[in-house]
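Hi W., the nickel (II) ion complex you wanted:
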Amino acid sequence: MAIREIMKMGDDVLRKKSRKVTAFDHRLHQLLDDLRDTLEQADGVGLASPQVGILKRVIVIRIGDQFVDFVNPEIIRTEGEQRELEGCLSIPGKWGITKRPSKVTIRAQDRNGKFFEKTDEGLIARAFCHETDHLDGVLYIDHALRLLTPEELEREQSGN
Ligand code: NI
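Structure:
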């Protein structure tokens, strides 16, 4: 297991489309373990494989105290709408307001290739959307309703 470097905006890899995973082998497990470690160290909610420079359709999301692997994830159902604050480990120091569905169902495979579905709301629903977007080279700033001003950013940070 290892902490990998998180690519920052401006790096081409963040704009590319990731490839579907077909081999559920040791290399995939290594990648998932590294994503987990890197996400934990960065204290984020989710991390997508292209963010560590590997163009595979793989994301890891922290749900409660668990890190959940999603291989070849697809959003299959959405409901409602939320407008909330969103950030990205690849775009440090910036926050924006995005419009996302309030409830999202994701279908994916686990690290052994077994299909499963997961439905969640609020922050995790946003993470499902945000991280799967990364697999198609999409960043939240592409469709944010607006980015926070430096003053709002300061207020937000002093509040934490
Ligand atoms: Ni991100």
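The chain has a mean pLDDT of 95.

W.
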